[in-house]
From TrEMBL:
It is found in: Cell membrane; Membrane. The central subunit of the protein translocation channel SecYEG. Consists of two halves formed by TMs 1-5 and 6-10. These two domains form a lateral gate at the front which open onto the bilayer between TMs 2 and 7, and are clamped together by SecE at the back. The channel is closed by both a pore ring composed of hydrophobic SecY resides and a short helix (helix 2A) on the extracellular side of the membrane which forms a plug. The plug probably moves laterally to allow the channel to open. The ring and the pore may move independently. This is Protein translocase subunit SecY. HAMAP family: SecY. The chain crosses the membrane at residues 18-39, 60-82, 109-133, 140-160, 206-226, 299-323, 359-381. GO terms for cellular component: plasma membrane. Its main location: membrane. One of its GO terms (biological process) is protein transport by the Sec complex. Keywords: Cell membrane, Membrane, Protein transport, Translocation, Transmembrane, Transmembrane helix, Transport. It is a multi-pass membrane protein. PROSITE patterns: SECY_2. Belongs to the SecY/SEC61-alpha family.
């Protein structure tokens, strides 16, 4: 008993961080239940019924934190990629802490604009099915923008004083409900209002098997990497330091994570958002709904193949934006090391580029498959599933990735603590 007490005392800081994170998560969940002001009770109940039943184009419960942190994530990803190309963003990126603050401020300004646009789009008659006064729409959009910045503030608190990355944890909390409802539906489909019939046991086993395959694929994408062996010119390395020296260059099979799917989804969702501002009889709106809407993607239409193509493209693009083979070659030369069997210089760069492209292509195909299987499942069983049922391959990738990140961070902190105790 005494040893257990001593253990908890030694882990006091870590326990405080976990408790702080849980408190912030509780506040976030409470915020997702508070409806926006400016709407009558009848309107709120009507909108909630649209969300629960999945009817029409409305996919949100209209509460203070409806938009969550996604507008900020979308802008951050775009800024991150643009900082490699746009001159003034590239200059800020190279200015250290000062430039980082400028990029952060610019990201939050763009988040304000994007969130306000999303808010106006969500309150349009095309999305809600009811006509609101322009002044009411602006007020609702204002509260939704406030909700986005509340989420950003909560995420910053978790990052600074809690466990793991705050943005990632809030995303996991927001999507975990979908994953829970999916498995609950597979276990007890009779508790959900199905249209027009229930799933057979065989169908449920097929869906569960596909989800299990998605989970295995997700773990592979999060943890698998390629090792390129390297050798050192200096042969007189002390045996005590030999174990600490890297003997390979690791390349993750999916270093981009869920970024390509987020970019592709944001781009495809922008079509629906643009169409929400148009009149019902507008020619361009009819084209968007016919070819580029989310419903067409779930029906394996043109937007489905465009969505997969964007994921494949963004996966390869983001990898080579994050890793420059020439920089890796220079880093190896500075360490007096070289790839086994390859001469230093241009041949090393070519070798790294070739291996990087191969592993990236494998990861991109796996990521595309992860995004495609849920839509294919929904298409095959659409007549037996609720309208708002989702099979989230992306959700699994985010949840597993964040869980592994938190575990690694906790292990790192534990190792640092034990090292500090040994030294001092």
């Amino acid at each position: 008993m005494k040893s257990i007490t001593n253990y908890f005392i030694s882990q006091k800081k870590k326990i405080n961080k976990i408790l702080f994170t849980l408190v912030i998560i509780f506040i976030y969940v409470i915020g997702t239940k508070i409806p926006v002001p400016c709407l009558d009770k009848e309107y709120i109940q009507f909108i909630e019924s649209l969300y629960v039943s999945g009817l029409g184009d409305f996919k949100f419960s209209l509460c203070i934190l409806s938009l969550g942190i996604m507008p900020y994530i979308t802008v951050s990803i775009i800024i991150q990629l643009a900082s490699k190309i746009v001159p003034f963003l590239k200059e800020w990126n190279e200015q250290g802490e000062k430039g980082k603050n400028q990029l952060n401020l610019f990201s939050r300004f763009l988040t304000l604009v994007l969130a306000f646009g999303y808010g106006l789009g969500m309150t349009s008659s095309n999305m809600l099915g009811i006509i609101l006064l322009p002044s009411i729409r602006v007020k609702i959009a204002f509260f939704l923008v406030v909700g986005v910045f509340i989420c950003i503030w909560l995420a910053d608190l978790i990052t600074a004083k809690g466990v793991g990355n705050g943005v990632s944890i809030l995303i996991v909390i927001s999507i975990s409900k979908e994953v829970y409802s999916t498995f609950r539906f597979l276990y007890k489909p009779g508790e959900t209002n199905l249209i027009p019939s229930t799933l057979a046991i065989y169908d449920r086993f097929v869906i569960f098997g596909c989800l299990l395959f998605l989970l295995i694929l997700t773990i592979i994408l999060c943890s698998a990497y390629l090792k390129i062996p390297i050798l050192y010119y200096t042969s007189n390395i002390n045996k005590t330091h030999e174990a600490k020296i890297d003997k390979h260059v690791p390349f993750k099979i999916n270093s981009a994570g869920v970024l390509p799917i987020i970019l592709a989804t944001s781009l495809m969702n922008s079509f629906d958002m643009i169409s929400s501002f148009m009149k019902p009889d507008n020619k361009f709106r009819k084209i968007i709904i016919s070819y580029f809407s989310i419903s067409q993607r779930q029906g394996l239409g043109l937007s489905f193949f465009l969505y997969l193509s964007l994921i494949l493209l963004f996966s390869i693009f983001s990898m080579f934006m994050a890793i420059n083979p020439h920089d890796v070659t220079q880093h190896l030369s500075k360490q007096d090391s070289y790839i086994e069997g390859i001469k230093p210089g241009e041949k090393t760069t070519y070798k790294i580029t070739d291996e990087l492209f191969k592993i990236t292509l494998i990861g991109a195909i796996c990521l595309t498959l992860l995004a495609a299987i849920p839509d294919i499942l929904y298409f095959c069983y659409s007549s037996k599933l609720p309208p708002n049922m989702k099979f989230g391959g992306t959700s699994l990738l985010i949840i597993v990735g964040v869980a592994l990140e938190c575990v690694q961070r906790m292990n790192t902190q534990t190792q640092l603590t034990s090292m500090h105790n040994k030294l001092f």
